Amino acid sequence: MAPISIKSVLISESVDPRCRAILEENGIRVTEKQNMKKDELIAEIKDYDGLVVRSATKVTADIINAADNLKIIGRAGTGVDNVDVDAATKKGIIVMNTPSGNTISAAELTCALLMSLSRNVPQAAMSMKQGNWDRKKFMGAELFGKVLGIVGLGRIGKEVASRMQSFGMRTIGYDPITPPEVSASWGVEQMSLEQLWPQCDYITVHTPLMPSTVGLLNDETFAKCKKGVKVVNCARGGIIDEAALVRALESGQCGGAGLDVFVEEPPKERSLINHPNVISCPHLGASTKEAQARCGEDIALQIVDMVQGKKLVGAVSSTQNYFSVLCYYKTCISKDKPQNIIQLFSTC
Ligand SMILES: NC(=O)C1=CN([C@@H]2O[C@H](COP(=O)(O)OP(=O)(O)OC[C@H]3O[C@@H](n4cnc5c(N)ncnc54)[C@H](O)[C@@H]3O)[C@@H](O)[C@H]2O)C=CC1
Ligand SMILES: O=C(O)C(=O)COP(=O)(O)O
Q1: Ligand 1, from 207, 327, 341: best to mutate by most atoms within 8 Å of Cβ?
Q2: Is the pLDDT of residue 276 over 90?
Q3: pLDDT tens for residues 157-181?
Q4: Where does the D-isomer specific 2-hydroxyacid dehydrogenase NAD-binding domain lie (predicted)?
Q5: Ligand 2: does its nearest atom lie under 6 Å from the Cβ of 77?
Q6: Confidence bin at 312 (pLDDT 50/70/90)
Q7: Which residues form the catalytic set?
Q8: Per residue in 295-311, pLDDT tens?
Q9: What pLDDT does residue 327 have?
Q10: Residues with beta carbon inside 6 Å of ligand 1?
Q11: What pLDDT digit, counting tens, does each position of 321-345 carry?
Q12: Does residue 320 surpass a pLDDT of 60?
């Protein structure tokens, strides 16, 4: 693989300091600038060969089109829905992520939300702070013996399954790519979504955000669920349709929701967050020391590998590292034939 010259990198979000240190140790000039407005980014992006982001920087086509020298967009994390991968690919810019660095953290937060939903922990804690001692109001239900539906059986879905099995939950799931025999080996019985919805006491979604996953849970699918089903979204806002979720909470069709992610972040629309049966976090799935250290280090090392002309190595398992792998190969090998990575993935 021919080395790629990367002399300057802009880090536009709070990324672990190891990222900067590794890049600088390898002779790359690093600028850290947070909370840049879109116009500012458009004006300055031409000065950089590389851009490192997390989820808050929206790397839109107009930013990419202004990026005359950009060779790489490094996502220190998993989801690349904030990057216009298609526009980047057309411009020959490699998009890389660090998909395994925050898996455990996102899985652990998902489990925390499932447990909090079952026992009303945040609401009870808030009530205590207000001086109350209300043991009746916060009566919960055991997770033991309940059915957890996991939609998206990739890295995080798998880790959630094993953790919740230890609480005695039955885990069922759906994934169009992960073979049923593979998920069965981790104790998850796969079935169609039609079969899955009516069986679940809890549903958690762990898919990327892409056209085929927008609104996976909507009015129609909520209606197919058990009355009182509880849902968790630690993946991306919009996989559970927010307006449909409000309606399902209002009618009691949904008994509670644990949300880490929102269509708009931070959300202006407050009806979900203010609902008494909703517990929420400000996109904290990857916000642990460990996950940030891994993601910051991984993205820097991947950039250095490219500068040194090394092949990209990483935790590549089947199609699940698809953004790193396919974007890398697409831009390096079939630069003349850019394809839409999301389409490619959703059809394979
Ligand atoms: N809240 C947070 O801070 C974090 C959120 N995430 C989100 O979690 C998502 C999942 O992450 P990983 O498990 O690492 O990704 P992954 O790529 O390992 O797994 C995603 C799985 O979803 C499956 N999938 C795709 N379309 C589907 C559909 N229509 N129905 C059911 N399954 C479908 C894929 O086949 C794949 O197995 C990321 O894309 C990201 O958006 C990831 C890390 C932290
Ligand atoms: O890695 C992901 O997909 C995440 O959602 C984590 O986002 P963050 O890096 O915390 O902005």
Answers
A1: 207
A2: yes
A3: 999 999 999 999 999 999 999 999 9
A4: 112-285
A5: yes
A6: low
A7: 236, 265, 283
A8: 999 999 999 999 998 86
A9: 42
A10: 78-79, 99, 102-103, 106, 151-157, 174-178, 206-209, 212-213, 234-236, 260-261, 283, 285-286, 320
A11: 344 444 443 333 333 333 333 323 3
A12: no
Q: What are phi and psi of 328, to 5 degrees?
A: -60, -50
State the ipTM, two decimals.
0.99
Return the percentage of the chain with pLDDT > 90, whole number: 87
3-state secondary structure the chain: CCCCCCCEEEECCCCCHHHHHHHHHCCCEEEECCCCCHHHHHHHHHHCCEEEECCCCCECHHHHHCCCCCCEEEECCCCCCCECHHHHHHCCCEEEECCCCCHHHHHHHHHHHHHHHHHCHHHHHHHHHCCCCCCCCCCCCCCCCCEEEEECCCHHHHHHHHHHHCCCCEEEEECCCCCHHHHHHCCEEECCHHHHHHHCCEEEECCCCCHHHCCCECHHHHHHCCCCEEEEECCCCCCECHHHHHHHHHHCCEEEEEECCCCCCCCCCCHHHHCCCEEECCCCCCCCHHHHHHHHHHHHHHHHHHHCCCCCCCCCCCCCCHHHHHHHHHHHCCCCCCCCHHHHHHHC
Q: Which is the closest atom of ligand 1 to the Cα of 213?
A: 29
Q: Identify which of 156, 299, 322 to mutate to test ligand 1's pocket (most ligand atoms within 8 A of the CB).
A: 156
pLDDT above 50 (res 220):
yes
Closest residue to atom 7 of ligand 2, CA basis: 55
How far apart are the C-alpha atoms of 16 and 290, rounded to whole Å?
Answer: 10
Question: Which ligand 2 atom sits closest to the C-alpha of 284?
Answer: 10
Question: Any idea which ligand is nearest the CA of 16?
Answer: 2
Q: What is the number of the ligand 2 atom nearest to the C-alpha of 13?
A: 11
d(CA 273, CA 303): 38
Which amino acid is located at 257 in the chain?
Answer: A
Residue 267, burial from CB neighbour count under 10 angstroms (0-12, 13-18, 19+): middle
